[in-house]
Structure formats: structure tokens, C-alpha cells
From TrEMBL:
Keywords attached to this entry: Amino-acid biosynthesis, Aromatic amino acid biosynthesis, Decarboxylase, Lyase, Tryptophan biosynthesis
CDD domains: IGPS
Metabolic or biological pathway, per its Swiss-Prot or TrEMBL entry: Amino-acid biosynthesis; L-tryptophan biosynthesis; L-tryptophan from chorismate: step 4/5
Name recorded for this polypeptide: Indole-3-glycerol phosphate synthase
InterPro entries: Aldolase_TIM, Indole-3-glycerol_P_synth, Indole-3-glycerol_P_synth_dom, Indole-3-GlycerolPSynthase_CS, RibuloseP-bd_barrel
Signal sequence residues: none
């Protein structure tokens, strides 16, 4: 299963990263970075309307290379200037060709909150996210025990990071709600066979209380997809491939949001 490979690769990478910057040094860097108010992100996504998270993603396990030409900062600025509510930056290097330095540069140059999109399996990655200027981190229920989920959720809060807790099915959704998630992402991509269905979000939307922001992730390509999600009272949509492959990103955002 791809998630097992991603977790194993992330753990190998972390060992090397901690040899060059120790946990203590990373904690000091995080402490020296201004702390944000996590509630601001939750309020933004709970406000009326549908809110777009534009993703900066060069490649993925399901699609391979998505953007050979990858001017990540220009892409992020384009998103920022044309109506996204947040920007997701893939920082996983082995399968997504991401980099934490992309996030650092982007966060320093845009006005909207930036999400660290990675496979968090260690508290080190949360300090790293804070130090790089992220406002939001992703915690994926499928790769964490209840104890890890709670510890990372609490630590993220303490660091002033908002948390997008990702679930794929009813069981994971229950665990996300139990931990106190204020923003839940439901992935429409089946990570076993990479098939995508918006029905996953539609089915799980009903199980999430109205005071918890609900973000539909993956496989959203056009205005019709967004309209269906709007009809089901989804608060946010996370879109990668459709934006990354659009030659005119401003135009694509306008089309998606129907403005
Ligand atoms: O995209 C993948 O192939 C993938 C494989 C395994 C784990 C996660 C994966 N994607 C991460 C994401 O959640 C997406 O990048 C994000 O939801 C945007 O999806 P899309 O709009 O379909 O590019």
C-alpha cells in the first residue's frame, strides 16, 4: 500500500534531516518564528461560501510528473492574487518531488495561510512546519495511532498551527472527531487503487457537525464538480492537478469558483 511506502520513506528522510538539524535546534527555530492564531484559519473556512485551497504539486504517485515546468513561487503568487483561501505545498520529496524550502519561500511571499502537505509521523515535522512559516499542517488519520494523533494535534495547537485532519472513511472520521478536529479533510482518492470519487465526500459530509469545517480533497476538476460539493454544504475544496495543469491559473480559479 502506497501509504506504507510513504511512511517508510518519510522516516528514512527524517533520520537524515535530524542529523543535519537536531530536534533541539529545530525547536529553537520554531520558537523564533512568530506564532499565528489557529482559530483564524478555522473561522475563514467556516465563513459562508466555498473556500479553495490551491495546491502546489510537481508530481504524485498516482499521476507521475504533473508539472515539468515548476515555477512554484510564481504559481503560489498567482493563486494568492486570484482568490484562494489557502495554499497547500507538497513538501514530500521522494514521491511528490516536494521540498520544505518551497514552503518556506512561498509562506514568506503570500498573504494567505500555507498548509504543509506531508506525511507527518514525528513531532519534528511540526516544529519544521512552524519554522518554515506554515500556518496549517495535515495529519492523516490512516498513518497515526490514536495516541500519536492526539499528541501531534495538541502540539500543533500549542505551536499556533491549525490542523487539517484527513480521513478516508467512517472509522477514520470518527477518530478525527474524537481528537477534537476543527477542520476535517476527506480524501476522494482511494489510496489502494487511486480511483477517485466525489461520493466519498458527499457520504461523509453528513457525519460532520456544522461547526467543524469540511474540506473535500482530490479529484475535483471543474465547476460541475464544485457545484455538487456546494450543494452538499462542503466548506472547502483542495485542488492540485486541475490547477497545476491549467495554463491560465487565474482563469481556472474563476471557473472553479463560478465568480
Ligand atoms: O495524489 C496522489 O497520488 C496521492 C497518493 C498517495 C497519497 C496522497 C496523494 N495525494 C495527496 C493529495 O491529497 C492530493 O495532492 C490533493 O488532495 C490534491 O488532489 P488533486 O486535486 O487530485 O491533485
Amino acid at each position: 500500500m502506497i501509504l506504507d511506502d510513504l511512511v517508510a520513506a518519510t522516516k528514512r528522510r527524517l533520520k537524515k534531516e535530524q542529523q543535519s538539524v537536531s530536534l533541539r535546534q529545530m525547536q529553537a527555530q520554531a520558537a523564533a518564528t512568530p506564532t499565528k492564531d489557529p482559530q483564524r484559519v478555522y473561522d475563514r473556512f467556516n465563513a459562508p461560501g466555498i473556500h479553495l485551497i490551491g495546491e502546489v504539486k510537481k508530481a504524485s504517485p498516482s499521476k507521475g510528473l504533473i508539472a515539468a515546468d515548476f515555477p512554484y513561487l510564481a504559481i503560489a503568487k498567482d493563486y494568492d492574487q486570484h482568490g484562494v483561501s489557502a495554499i497547500s505545498v507538497l513538501t514530500e520529496p521522494d514521491y511528490f518531488q516536494g521540498n520544505i524550502n518551497y514552503l518556506k519561500t512561498i509562506a514568506a511571499n503570500v498573504s494567505v495561510p500555507v498548509l504543509r502537505k506531508d506525511f507527518v509521523v514525528d513531532s519534528y515535522m511540526l516544529y519544521q512546519a512552524k519554522a518554515a512559516g506554515a500556518s496549517i499542517v495535515l495529519l492523516i488519520v490512516a498513518i497515526l495511532s490514536d495516541d500519536q494523533l492526539k499528541r501531534y494535534f495538541d502540539l500543533a495547537n500549542k505551536l499556533g498551527l491549525s490542523v487539517l485532519v484527513e480521513a478516508h472513511d467512517e472509522g477514520e472520521l470518527k477518530r478525527a472527531l474524537n481528537v477534537g478536529a476543527k477542520m476535517i479533510g476527506v480524501n476522494n482518492r482511494n489510496l489502494k487503487d487511486f480511483t477517485v470519487s466525489l461520493d466519498n465526500s458527499i457520504r461523509l459530509r453528513k457525519l460532520v457537525p456544522d461547526n467543524v469545517a469540511f474540506v473535500a480533497e482530490s479529484g475535483i476538476h471543474n465547476r460541475d464538480d464544485v457545484k455538487i460539493l456546494e450543494q452538499h454544504h462542503v466548506n472547502g475544496i483542495l485542488i492540485g492537478e486541475a490547477l497545476m495543469t491549467a495554463p491560465d491559473k487565474a482563469d481556472k480559479i474563476t471557473q472553479l469558483l463560478g465568480v
